[in-house]
Specification:
alpha/beta, TIM Barrel, eight-stranded parallel beta sheet, 11 helices, globular
Length: 260
């Protein structure tokens, strides 16, 4: 099994990473992708990737932190982009729910990082909340830079929007929220081919049912995979295999590192 989006550097997990990774090995979780939000998390993610064979990292600035984007951050992204275990630019995008950075700044930084990702042939991991229209407008305007893949992390948009993104070849990741009783994602899943689906936990956030409210870890990924299997009407082993194939296709640097 695979967790394509988590935050092992978060203080709620950072002191327990050795145990978490050992437990992942015992649970046959093949690899995890630690996602960047700002300078400290970006650097921590690469350190974790250097330390643990099963950990890969992304680089990039979360929309909440867009106001802090600067030349130093851009230089550090450039230095890390060629690291063999840096596999994507993310999580980047727009968040109009909290508006922790000015919306114009969010849009500018999002567009800059899309161009950066293309320069280094890295796929994107998007964080979009209450901003799907503006996000789509930016992706459409930047389409010439979308040559390595677009992944909608924790997808929360409509079925119609998903259908539109599927036509553009985009991928979608689902985590704990898909298990919530009020999730009602069946109409969305119907629009997404099984070869475009990835699994994630977003640890330490978004624990799945029946663990909602507790600190999340990648050890909960089987709950996500099982839920996706039921929604796609396949057995868990088939769902695991499809997600593994999808992840190695979407993140070619993971495939290269693992010799697949």
């Amino acid at each position: 099994m695979i967790d394509t989006h988590l935050h092992l550097d978060d203080p709620r997990l950072a002191n327990d990473v050795d145990r978490i990774i050992n437990d992942c090995r015992a649970a046959n979780i093949q690899f995890v992708v630690n996602n960047s939000c700002d300078m400290p998390s970006m650097l921590a993610g690469v350190r974790l990737a250097d330390k643990y064979n099963e950990v890969f990292a992304t680089i990039g600035m979360h929309p909440h932190e867009s106001k802090s984007y600067c030349d130093d951050f851009a230089r550090e992204m450039t230095r890390l982009a060629v690291h063999p275990k840096v596999v994507a630019v993310g999580e980047i995008g727009l968040d109009y729910h909290y508006d922790l950075s000015d919306r114009n700044t969010q849009r500018d930084v999002f567009a800059l990082q899309i161009e950066f990702a293309d320069k280094y042939k890295l796929p994107l991991t998007l964080h979009i909340r209450d901003a799907y229209g503006d996000a789509w407008d930016i992706l459409r305007a930047q389409k010439r830079y979308l040559n390595s893949g677009v992944l909608w992390h924790c997808y929360g948009g409509s079925a119609e929007f998903a259908r539109q993104a599927v036509r553009e070849g985009h991928y979608f990741a689902f985590g704990g929220a898909i298990t919530f009783k009020n999730a009602r994602k069946e109409d969305v899943i119907e629009q997404i081919p099984i070869d475009r689906i990835l699994s994630e936990t977003d640890s330490p956030y978004m624990s799945p049912e029946p663990l909602r409210g507790r600190v999340n870890t990648p050890l909960n990924i089987p709950i996500i995979v099982s839920k996706l299997a039921s929604m796609y009407r396949v057995d868990v082993a088939t769902m695991e295999a499809r997600i593994s194939d999808n992840a190695l296709r979407y993140f070619p640097k993971i495939r290269a590192f693992r010799g697949k």
